[in-house]
Specification:
InterPro entries: ComF/GntX_DNA_util-trans, PRTase-like, PRTase_dom
Pfam families: Pribosyltran
Family: Belongs to the ComF/GntX family.
Strand content: 5-15%
CATH class of the largest domain: Alpha Beta
Number of domains: 2
CATH architecture of the largest domain: 3-Layer(aba) Sandwich
Number of strands: 6
Helix content: 25-40%
Radius of gyration: 18 Å
Shape: globular
Largest sheet: 4 strands, parallel
Bound molecules: zinc ion
Organism: Jeotgalibacillus salarius
Protein name: ComF family protein
């Protein structure tokens, strides 16, 4: 069997049924696995998964807490790995090179996180722009959920991009136009937003804000990198 990412042969004595099972359990070879740095709950912010000494809420989230529009939109974000060079390459492969199968590398971890959610939480991918969708042919955040075999709902869509991109340049991350809109009203459902990266947290909070306005209950998010 081969590593889902680098295709190196993984040497292990196993039966065929083990192999099938193992493939789901552990898609990476030893080298890829050791190159990825898992974010541990003990050393990360309880709200955004950002690295910090000890536990609690990081300075960045405390600032978000003061924001008049976004202070209570996001229950919590969980990110799986630190955004290092290897993860950057992995994300690039499925996001920009269209290597859909690489999205399957994260299947096991995504399923583990989804199992921890409150019952009947709806999984919602953060939509990519129409323009990017056309060049890549698929939504990479959907690919993560598809490859994990999870059901999801596309409750968000993007407004016309050109306007919001131009405005983004003029405004700081805490203001600017929200690029998302909800496609339907909600009735207190809890939501898990799925995205590839948590960078400043602005995208996730904007998406969460729109879902809250549409009537969502608690909004959490899950990203591969942080
Ligand atoms: Zn590998
Ligand atoms: Zn934080």
């Amino acid at each position: 069997m081969r590593c889902l990412y680098c295709h190196a042969v993984i040497h292990e004595e196993m039966s065929w049924s083990d192999l099938l099972f193992k493939r789901i359990e552990d898609p990476f070879c030893g080298i890829c696995k050791s190159g990825l740095l898992e974010i541990k709950k003990e050393n990360s912010c309880s709200v955004c998964s950002g690295k910090m000494e000890g536990s609690g809420t990081c300075g960045d989230c405390l600032i978000w807490n003061e924001h008049q529009m976004y202070h209570d939109v996001l229950h919590s974000n969980r990110s799986l790995y630190e955004y290092n060079q290897l993860l950057k390459e992995m994300i690039k492969r499925f996001k920009y090179n269209g290597d859909y199968a690489v999205a399957g590398c994260f299947r096991k971890k995504i399923i583990e996180e989804v199992k921890k959610l409150p019952r009947q939480t709806l999984l919602v991918p953060v939509p990519v722009s129409e323009e990017r969708l056309q060049t890549r042919g698929f939504n990479q955040t959907e690919a993560l959920l598809v490859m994990a075999g999870l059901k999801f709902e596309c409750l968000l869509t993007r407004k016309n991009e050109e306007v919001s991109q131009a405005k983004k340049l003029k405004h700081d991350r805490h203001s600017g136009e929200n690029p998302f809109k909800a496609i339907q009203q909600l009735n207190g459902e809890n939501i898990l937003l799925m995205d590839d990266l948590y960078t400043t947290g602005t995208t996730i909070r904007r998406a969460a804000h729109i879902l809250k306005e549409a009537g969502a209950g608690e909004v959490r998010s899950l990203t591969i990198g942080r």
